[in-house]
Amino acid sequence: MQNMFIGKGNLAGSPELKHLPGRNGDFTVASMRVMFGRYGQNEEGQVEQVGGFWREVEIYGPKAEACAKLLRKGARVLVIGEEREYTGRDDDGREVQVLKVVAEDVTLQLSRVESITFAAPRARQAESEPAEA
């Protein structure tokens, strides 16, 4: 890879899945917008977020379908791929440069485990035990 990209970020929205025609049949692409944070040290030597940047991320094939099923807005992901620059036009017709990441791999990060709700094991166990007299 010429412009290797590795970054952790949060999804701005759920991935959009598209089926596009190709030479060897249809292929699948998932597009998502990700906010990647920049971190630095403050005066006390603690690490804090000092900025960030947005990137369009695309992934192809079976991984695209998995991303569409598993990822939702706000999910923390690790993206590994290649950064590519494209020239396009905005809504007003002006020429703009766009940076996209063509992902080789997108991994869901479970750094926010506190937001996941688990069923209490004791509640299930209590239901299966006979009542004492």
UniProtKB/TrEMBL annotation:
Gene3D superfamilies: Nucleic acid-binding proteins. Pfam families: SSB (PF00436). One of its GO terms (molecular function) is DNA binding. The keyword Flavoprotein does not apply. Keywords: DNA-binding. NCBIfam families: PRK08182.1. This is Single-stranded DNA-binding protein. The lineage of its organism: Bacteria, Pseudomonadati, Pseudomonadota, Betaproteobacteria, Burkholderiales.
